[in-house]
Amino acid sequence: MKPYVLGIDIGGTNTVFGLVDARGVVIASDSIKTAKHNRIEDYLDELYAGATRLIEANDAVDKVHGIGIGAPNSNYFTGMIEDGVNLPWPTPIPLAKMVSEKFGIPVAITNDANAAAIGEMTYGAARGIKDFIMITLGTGVGSGIVINGQMVYGHDGLAGELGHVIVKRNNGRLCGCGRTGCLEAYCSATGVARTAREFLEIRANEPSLLRNIPVEQITSKDVYDAAISGDQMAKDIFDYTGTILGEAMADMIVFSSPAAFILFGGLSKSGELLLKPLRAALEKNTLQCFKGKTKVMLSELKEADAAVLGASALGWEAKPIETPQVPA
Amino acid sequence: MKPYVLGIDIGGTNTVFGLVDARGVVIASDSIKTAKHNRIEDYLDELYAGATRLIEANDAVDKVHGIGIGAPNSNYFTGMIEDGVNLPWPTPIPLAKMVSEKFGIPVAITNDANAAAIGEMTYGAARGIKDFIMITLGTGVGSGIVINGQMVYGHDGLAGELGHVIVKRNNGRLCGCGRTGCLEAYCSATGVARTAREFLEIRANEPSLLRNIPVEQITSKDVYDAAISGDQMAKDIFDYTGTILGEAMADMIVFSSPAAFILFGGLSKSGELLLKPLRAALEKNTLQCFKGKTKVMLSELKEADAAVLGASALGWEAKPIETPQVPA
Predict the structure, then answer these.
(1) A35, A57, A271, B119: which has the highest count of C-beta atoms within 10 A?
(2) Which residues does B266 contact at the CB level (< 8 Å), separation at least 6?
(3) Does B158 contact A289 at a Cβ distance shorter than 8 Å?
(4) A277-314 tens-digit pLDDT
């Protein structure tokens, strides 16, 4: 097997790519602006030029086994970026095929949370764990589910959208997906900011450091800073968030009985502010036969490398796109 | 491979067992009373005698490949019936080992809902479907989850307890598991009877055929009969039940994106009374990218044979229990 893989993480703002070896060392990486090009072809030209520079500079020509791509709304089975995604090009996009033809290297794609789970399984906290659920707490809430050592893609390649389980059935918050009450509307970074605005309004007479910030500009980082400074309302916001997440995770346990949850993304770095109420809610709400069995862990991948590492891990399983055989 | 398997379904009241061929034909079956014996050894003696009679009468001596057992709270990995189960013997019970030693045939066990799912996959509606969720609507609500053609057992062998996802987070009904708001407390046969009692009390001035029955004796069958007779309250009870089930199923879809749900058990025979509100709630609550993709099907296994068939299907994958090697 060739010794390297190329990992590409396509975000709404930046596309980060890196050359990775079998031990999960990012040999070199670089990035381009995702939205700079209106035409996907121009974007791929720049990506190809940048990645080729990396490969050549590191003596890796003809040594790249596969390319793994993490991209929003992308489908492992079809290799397509599906509809309804915040990227500057018309969808669906047959991305795996386009990148594979461009580079002459096999390509596999999946969504960013699945890529993170594969990265964690290959290089991180989930090594040796056959049943776990990765939950990414960023601008949104994503998930990657591994059962019996295999990623769960579902019948259509799109499984593992646990940010969209309903945690509040009635009068829930409007979610970006158009429904109401999704986990993501509460336990993402933006969800925490929404909770802050709600608490400031409901508890109008209670002083809080958060009142020093224009209400529409409050971020989850502001809430974190206030909580660390001892602000009661900010601490209560984390309690509220962790409790909802723990309750939702208790419901995930009855589905697949994972050995561990692995939390990843900005909010997961809030540490015990989030984890303490989360663990309490998980323990309280877990069905008796599963109580105390499922670990809650934090990602072991370095934030700067994680996206590329996750995507790259998928590169090891990339296979050439099959060309239909034409009978002679 | 030997041509037959023996399926054993252990229920709280009856234990049904049958000799099954590779096409899923129940060659012969019989039953004994589960609770007749206070000692598991005596129970197994009677089971062995009964099954041996079947095997001998059908010229199947030395032709049984394996024994599959469906039993409550049983663990595929350990072969044990775990704690907290409504059977007359002290738990945990190393049932797979005990039965295997008794018969001299490899044994595999799992819970009844998983057995039903394996039966459906082997002989029924799920043939050829690699991703589906079986939901059993009986006295309780059970589930068997198949992902990528494999049963989901989780890290501890106990996964797939979807009757215990929380459908009502606050002020939910007390469930047999000790928590509140579980799906099972609403969408089981007993849940339907509870809904009937609630509706009769809340809608105290509304006439209903159900008022002709002593309130504590109302069963889901009574509600079904009343609904078929056009009783509005009874129809509303099915609407309520189907809606809750459909909402819960929409949350299951974001987890594993199954190609199909397969409903099994007494309540599933209510037909459109249950399925119409269920499908409406499922459609309304499903995340956009999954809408309209997941079929809702009814089990194709005959009720009388289903439990034995499901258990028997597991017999095909039973392997001899490994005896630790003693160094010479």
Answers:
(1) B119
(2) B137, B138, B189, B220, B221
(3) yes
(4) 999 999 999 999 999 999 999 998 887 788 899 999 99
